[in-house]
Each structure stands twice: as C-alpha cells, then as structure tokens.
Amino acid sequence: SIIQDLKKNFEIVKLITGSLVSCHRLAVSVAGSNGLSGSTLVDGRYSYQE
Question: Model pTM?
Fold first, then answer.
C-alpha cells in the first residue's frame, strides 16, 4: 500500500540522514580548529568531499 511504502521511504531517509550527521560530526572533530575542507580526511580513508 502507499502508506507502507511511505513509511519505508521515511525510515530509509531517517537512517541516511542520521548517518550523514554522524559523519559530519566526526569530520568536524577531526578538523579541530582548522575547520573543514574538502581534503579533510575522515577515518583515515575518505576525504570530507567524498
């Protein structure tokens, strides 16, 4: 049904948003007082730009 599909889509968006927020917080903590740039490495593997 449409309601079930909307609920499923909402849950997916909620999970993705939560993941992005966590990633952003990690990037901010890694950057420290230097601030974020596209080349800031997060978890030693991915740049903030990625």
Answer: 0.63
